[in-house]
Amino acid sequence: MSILIVLLCIVILILLITWGKLNAFLAFLIISLLAGLLLKLPPEKIMSAVQQGMGDTLGSLVSIICLGAMLGKLVAESGAAQKIATVLMGAFGARYLQWALMITGFIIGIPLFYGVGFVLMVPLIFSVVYQYKLPAVYIGLPMLAALSVTHGFLPPHPSPTALVQQFGASMGITLLYGLLIAIPAIIIAGPLFSRVVKNIKSEPLELFRPQAIDKTQLPGSANSFITSLLPVFLLTATTVLNYLLSNNQSAKGVLTLVSEPGLIMLVSVLVAAFTLGTGCGRSMKSVMAIYGEAVKDVGMILLIIAGSGALKQVLTESGVSKEIAAALETWPVHPLVLAWCMAGIIRICVGSATVAGLTTAGIIAPLLAKTSVNANLMVLSVGAGSLLFSHVNDAGFWLFKEYFNLSIKDTLKTWSVMETIVAVTGLVGVMILSYTIG
């Protein structure tokens, strides 16, 4: 009966967001309270569970997500993203423009949030389309596939970062595994798949003709690449050092501190304030204004994550999480596949990858504790499932349709299929890693 109540609550959550058009944060709060009442949690404990869930979930995430937004905003505003694209396009030449844009999307996608990255990169795609007279969908899909993969798979993006915390995974190891899975996923969903849809006609709207920053005002190439990728370099370096010096007790405390993702993001943001800020002629006041704007951009994302934490805590307090875990254990499906399917179903119903990933985490976390499944791979499996088949209830679907001026049918044939390829390839990569590392 308890499991049926949880399923009912998830259905109502989906209906509130899709049919009722309710904000996801409000929907999570309503369902958390409803679940507490239906699962017969003592009334006085329901609100305390909601508050505890929100606090515990946000506690370790606020700094990482806000600092990540600050770094991404400065990378965009300073022209570092444009510089990276210019350098790569010059290096690859006209023949391999797709690959240049794909790599640009991947590099820029690591510090930039998806919506910001999309709006920033699409004018760049169109500038290439106009200059070289190439099909817009053919040129654009590889870059957008790269942005999508970084959004779903890689920290410090909100959903994978929250999943790392909920599953007790390692940020650095998840990032390393994520990079291994992301590269083939992007290549298959990007340059390879785009050949299939090369003949789909797209006439980008004049409104989106690019207004580029003057080349003389762009930061240097090394500065742009190093600053944008600094969190990746630092996370990778500290993860490797932790592995190499695991038996060195005197270094353990220091390594624990310096490998904290929050500290790594803080260092990256402070470095960027000088390298892309004051070092490029901006005042510190203007850099701080950019950082302030960035925090506003992620406010709602933080609230949605908090709402998912509230629901997770209500399920935990009621004891139904353990019941679900016990029931799922008997299913003849690998836990990684099960998690991917759950995230995929919720994604198709709700549209939001973040909501799909976080809702799945609350259900699957107790099962993870009872199995020997690698927590880092579980993060990636849920992340991959949360990207499955974007369609008319997803904001990304409409962004792509309107910017590329496509029909709904052609958007489904291009964007929706690309997202599905990313999700399926991601699951295949997770399973190969699972059987490889044991």
From TrEMBL:
Its main location: membrane. This is Gluconate transporter. It comes from the Bacteria. The chain crosses the membrane at residues 5-38, 58-76, 96-129, 136-154, 174-193, 225-245, 257-277, 298-316, 336-365, 377-400, 420-437. Keywords: Cell membrane, Membrane, Transmembrane, Transmembrane helix, Transport. It is a multi-pass membrane protein. InterPro entries: Glcn_transporter. Belongs to the GntP permease family. The keyword Cytoplasm does not apply. It is found in: Cell membrane.
